[in-house]
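RECORD TYPE: inverse folding
INPUT: structure tokens
STRUCTURE:
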């Protein structure tokens, strides 16, 4: 969370004091949301762009920004009460006295029409104003026309998200068909640690008295050689099974079968 205490956010110089800046009605907080982890980081411009738009708007209407809250890699379809940054902002507002939240666009608040309307209603019940810097009156006015505009913007954002998801899915499928390689999802052990997986397979095949080592025996041997998981513990049987691309239950069944015979 960032705080702006009577300070110019562009230059860092003290701002000229206005008599009405100390009133609750002119205090506001900024809310910034990025939906993808790919847009998070100091080298990315999503949060910078949002911040600049919010600051420009608050200067134009002589609002005082007293705080900034961010939800990084949080979907616009998530309800506001499930967002850590948003809930922290509401707690701060309750104790600070500010009653206005500024977002860059309505889609930064929500990309799902239902989430938008339910969230907006909750803010209204709390006596909190929501302002989109690019369309200031879409949330401030509660007239039928404003509600229609707000819902149209929400529907457009929802449609835009669906189109983006569809385009990305199509691109991944085309690349997969062309290269035969996986282009999405969590990387497996073979992709992350090929040398470790090769060692696990070698240990699985070799046992001093013949047969195969069990998953736990392999884990113990790896730990003895200094190979442990990211928490510093021996690999679990499930992790070893994943490296061998077998189901732990199948491995246990095989071990029982060998004991019985």
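DESIGNED SEQUENCE:
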């Amino acid at each position: 969370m960032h705080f702006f205490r009577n300070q110019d956010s562009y230059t860092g110089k003290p701002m000229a004091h206005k008599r009405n800046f100390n009133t609750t009605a002119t205090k506001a907080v900024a809310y910034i949301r990025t939906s993808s982890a790919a847009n998070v980081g100091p080298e990315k411009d999503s949060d910078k762009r949002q911040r600049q738009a919010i600051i420009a708007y608050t200067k134009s209407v002589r609002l005082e920004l007293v705080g900034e809250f961010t939800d990084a890699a949080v979907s616009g379809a998530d309800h506001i009460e499930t967002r850590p940054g948003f809930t922290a902002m509401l707690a701060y507002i309750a104790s600070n006295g500010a009653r206005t939240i500024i977002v860059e666009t309505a889609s930064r608040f929500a990309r799902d029409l239902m989430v938008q309307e339910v969230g907006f209603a909750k803010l209204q019940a709390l006596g909190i104003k929501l302002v989109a810097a690019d369309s200031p009156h879409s949330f401030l006015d509660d007239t039928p026309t404003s509600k229609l505009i707000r819902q149209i913007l929400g529907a457009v954002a929802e449609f835009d998200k669906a189109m983006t998801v569809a385009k990305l899915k199509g691109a991944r499928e085309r690349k997969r068909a062309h290269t035969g390689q996986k282009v999405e999802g969590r990387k497996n052990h073979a992709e992350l640690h090929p040398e470790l997986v090769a060692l696990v397979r070698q240990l699985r095949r070799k046992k001093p008295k013949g047969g195969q080592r069990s998953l736990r025996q392999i884990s113990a041997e790896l730990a003895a050689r200094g190979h442990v998981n990211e928490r510093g513990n021996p690999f679990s049987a499930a992790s070893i099974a994943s490296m061998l691309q077998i189901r732990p239950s199948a491995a246990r069944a095989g071990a029982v079968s060998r004991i019985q015979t």
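NOTES: The CA atoms of residues 139 and 250 lie 57 Å apart.
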